[in-house]
Amino acid sequence: MGAILEVQNVSLQFGGVKALNDVSYHIKEGEIFSLIGPNGAGKTSMLNCISGLYRPSNGSIRFKGQEILNMKPYKRTTLGIARAFQNIALFAHMSVLDNLKLGRHTLMKSGLLKGGLYWGSAQKEEVEHRRAVEEVINFLQLQDYRHTPVGTLSYGLQKRVEVGRALALEPELILLDEPMAGMNSSEKEDMSRFILDMHELKKMTVVLIEHDLGVVMDLSDSIAVLDFGKQIGFGTPAEIQNNPEVIKAYIGEEAI
User: Fold this and answer.
1) What residue segments make up the domains of the chain, in order of their start?
2) Where do the ABC transporter domain residues begin and end (predicted)?
3) Which residues contact 76 (CB under 8 A, 6 or more apart)?
4) What tens digit of pLDDT does each residue of 136-160 get?
5) Which of 152, 163, 154 has the alpha carbon at shortest distance from 94?
6) How far apart are the C-alpha atoms of 5 and 23, rounded to whole Å?
7) What is the CATH class of 1-80+171-256?
8) What is the pLDDT of residues 166-179, one digit of tens each?
9) 69, 45, 42: which is closest to 58 by C-alpha?
10) Is residue 81 within 8 Å of 175, Cβ to Cβ?
């Protein structure tokens, strides 16, 4: 398959600090792609550039052949890009169902006026949004928590809802920023299975930031490695594991 996302010579600078320095890689349609590196390497900054929260100092980011750097974040969402955040950004007092429904707000076409004048159209749209949300609830096995306030759930379940809010947008490309952070081994196994199902059943392209190298090597089709904003490796898991620069900067001799 061809590339769904192409990152070319992307740099991002905050004052005198270069968060990203001439980073280039491509992500094939339908693959699981991981972005790894030490803390402060620029991984989240890279996702922020893709999702539109940051604008690179220079470079190009193309989604399905279309340049997206000048697009607002919500426009990128409507194109098929969704993002789950490392730090949970849910409405704690609201239910799982309502949080997931809010996740689809950028896809809603029927405004208040249209809803008032053309109730049939708005009603059909509401049915479609509810269908998509219920599909996410079933996919992530959240049926028992549908009406539970998110703030009362365990941390692992809250992370699952955070991912679910991105899934509710039915994206072609989903960006997952440390979806397993703070999870126990059982919760990590569940999230790994959900990521594989996004890839295999939903045919989504997944971009994953994750510090557990065992998970990364097991799940990924390809990997890019950052270190202090500079890309030091890009390739298959086997190629990354045998890359001398990556071993020296990140993996370590003992891990090979």
Assistant:
1) 1-80+171-256, 92-170
2) 5-253
3) 50, 51, 52, 63, 68
4) 999 999 999 999 999 999 999 999 9
5) 152
6) 13
7) alpha beta
8) 999 999 999 999 99
9) 69
10) yes
